[in-house]
Structure formats: structure tokens, C-alpha cells
Amino acid sequence: MRKKIVAGNWKMNKNLDEAKALVSEVVNMVRDEITGEVDVVLCPPAVYLTTLRQYIPTEVRMALGAQNCHEKESGAYTGEVSALMLKSIGVQYVILGHSERRQHFGETNAQLAEKVNRVLEYFMYPIFCCGESLDQRENGDYVGFVKSQLTESLFHLSPEQFSKVVIAYEPIWAIGTGLTASAGQAQDMHFELRQHIASKYGDEIAQDTTILYGGSANEKNAADLFAQPDVDGGLIGGASLKSREFTNIVKARQ
Ligand code: 3PY
């Protein structure tokens, strides 16, 4: 059985007091209202991770994730955060290759392959983001493009390593635009990605791989998206900044 996950990507939002308030609200709502088997992951800005960890009681099914890490082990990389540092403060998941990082920071598939390696070396779970632009969807082989992101950043992994990876399909045209892929569009791509994984790692691993949908998912469209057989949860942007809405999305997944 693959894991169901709802992860909140806070991006570069909130001051410390707001972050503490948000995490406390989500903890209370999840503790009181979520009874099903769903892992909740909160991915605040890196500077808040250590503090926010103290706000998450061990009995609540919630983990912390980072939004990025550097691909090198350590060294003269001013301003960067390593996988070892994240592990040492209790982080369990690391989002890698979000389209905003690919677009604004020039992250490449080869560089992401190294980041994936570091995250796995420190026994954390990569949430590997992939997705096509609007131009690619309208004019190109967008399925082939997204598959190649997986091939180039993940397919060097052993089956055992790959089984720790969470995939997040996030069509770029649906990020920060208010546009969402329809449930059918999401299902089609998730199905294609699962087939692609099966072609490399076999059916069993493909069936066990958690594939999240991201891109303007919210409390209104979550139930439809999660009803699709290959959509195992969500990587939630703006809606994760509102405790009630985020909890409703988790409820829709449980
Ligand atoms: C969004 O929903 O906008 C996201 O980018 C989630 O990562």
C-alpha cells in the first residue's frame, strides 16, 4: 500500500509569530479531526524549522519538510543549507526541483540528481517535483518532457533508494496562476508517470510510489483530484497558509 501524503509548501511566507500560530492551528485541527491514514508534512521556510519542530507533538501524525537543500555535503557555499543540517534538526522530507527553483535558480535535472542523492544519504524522503510549462503542454511532447525529468534525476537510483522517493507532479501553468489541472488531466499524467516508473523499476515499486498532485490545489478541488486512482495526495501551495483550508484538504485525502 502506498502512503497518502498531504504536504504544505509555505514558500517564502510568514514571519515567526505567524508561522508558530499557523503550525499550532494545524496541529490542533489535525489532532482533533483527522482519523485516517494520511501523513501530513509541513514545509515552512528553513529558518523556522528548528523552532516549529517544538510545536509538533510526537503523537500527531505530522512531519517537517524543507523546501530545498544544497547538493554538496558541506563547504564554502555561503547562504546554503545542507542535507546533513536538515537531518540534524529533525527534518524528514525535502522538496526538490520545485518549478520556482528550476525557473528562478536555474536548477537542472543533473543538479537535482545530486540533491536527491544527498537527501537519501541522510535517510530523508525527497519530494521530487516535475511538470511541464503551458507552451510544452500546448505544443510539445509534454508527457515525454516530464518523464525525462524523472529519468535524468531519479533513474540512477537503486530500487531500494527509489522506493524512498515521493513524486509531485506540478504543471507549471497551474502554479500561482489559480489554474488547476482537471482531475482527468492529473490522473492521465500520474498514470503515465507510474508506467514510466514501472518500465524502470517494475510494477511493484511503481504501484508503491506515492505521486502527489501540486498546482493550485485547494479545498474545493481536492476531493475530485484525490478520487483519481493514481493521485495519492497533494503538495499544496497557497492553500497551505490557511489552517482551516489546509486541514480540509487533509480531510479530503484521509
Ligand atoms: C502551488 O500549489 O502553487 C505549488 O507550487 C505547490 O508546491
TrEMBL record:
Annotated Pfam families: TIM (PF00121)
Highest taxon above the source species: Bacteria
Annotated InterPro entries: Aldolase_TIM, TIM_sf, TrioseP_Isoase_bac/euk, Triosephosphate_isomerase, Triosephosphate_isomerase_AS
Quaternary structure note: Homodimer.
GO cellular component: cytosol
Compartment annotation: Cytoplasm
Protein's organism: Fibrisoma limi BUZ 3
Family: Belongs to the triosephosphate isomerase family.
Entry-linked NCBIfam families: tim
Binding-site residues for substrate, renumbered to this chain: N9, W10, K11, G176, S216, G237, G238
Active site: H98, E170
Keywords tagged on the record: Cytoplasm, Gluconeogenesis, Glycolysis, Isomerase
Record GO biological process: gluconeogenesis; glyceraldehyde-3-phosphate biosynthetic process; glycerol catabolic process; glycolytic process
The protein, known as: Triosephosphate isomerase
E.C. code: 5.3.1.1
HAMAP family: TIM_B (MF_00147_B)
Gene name linked to the record: tpiA
Cytoplasm keyword on record: yes
Catalytic activity: D-glyceraldehyde 3-phosphate = dihydroxyacetone phosphate
Pathway the protein takes part in: Carbohydrate degradation; glycolysis; D-glyceraldehyde 3-phosphate from glycerone phosphate: step 1/1; Carbohydrate biosynthesis; gluconeogenesis
Gene Ontology molecular function: triose-phosphate isomerase activity
Record's function text: Involved in the gluconeogenesis. Catalyzes stereospecifically the conversion of dihydroxyacetone phosphate (DHAP) to D-glyceraldehyde-3-phosphate (G3P).
